[in-house]
Amino acid sequence: MSLMAERVANFKTPEECTIFEKNVLERGRPDLAIAARKRSLELRAQKYGPSTDPERQCLEAVYAYEGVLATRNGKATRAVHTWQMIRRHGIIGAVERAVNREPETAGHTVLVELGLEDYAFEEVVVRHPELFSEGAVQCAQARLDEWKNCP
Predict the structure, then answer these.
(1) In this structure, are 25 and 80 located in the same domain?
(2) CA angle at 70 for the pair 4 and 114, rounded to the nearest 5°
(3) 121 within 8 A of 58, measured Cβ to Cβ
(4) What is the mean pLDDT of residues 113-118?
(5) Nearest Cα to 68, choosing from 10, 111, 128?
(6) How far is Cα 93 from Cα 100, in angstroms, rounded to an integer?
């Protein structure tokens, strides 16, 4: 692990990650910016308090989605509807419902631009098919296949 990658791994707050991300982007290091962005997602999910690794991954996906919203809106934006679904149906149930909705291709495109394509809800569902309905897994896989075949 390089010194800079080790530094990113040692960040304790999302705010540290954000400051570092902005600084390395200015210095032309998008690889380190992506690493800082991912560390920020990890820290935010940990703070929420998931009880399992799949729940943590789902929460990271929610925070990544908020990053998509922030990029689109030009300011910090909460995924209000998603958080309401989490309160009503739990983390896994909310992701199940999100995957079964109409796809948000623009959201996936922004995740790719941010270097966070592995944080799509569909990716989490496919990684943990035992936690989701067969229909959600099929929908997630079909959507991922479609996205990978798009130019």
Answers:
(1) no
(2) 40
(3) yes
(4) 88
(5) 111
(6) 11
Find the range with the poorest average confidence among 57-61, 98-102, 131-135, 147-151: 147-151
The DSSP code sequence of 89-151 is HHHHHHHHHHHTS---HHHHHHHHHTT-GGGSHHHHHHH-GGGS-HHHHHHHHHHHHHHHH--
Q: Which of 14, 32, 48 is the last residue of a domain?
A: 48
Chain segment 6-64, per-residue pLDDT in tens: 889 999 999 999 999 999 989 999 999 999 999 999 999 999 999 999 999 999 999 99
Structural domain for 1, as ranges: 1-48
The total number of residues written for the chain in this structure:
151
**21 and 84 in a common domain:** no
- The number of domains in the chain is 2
First-to-last CA distance in the chain?
Answer: 33
Structure tokens at 21: 């991300």
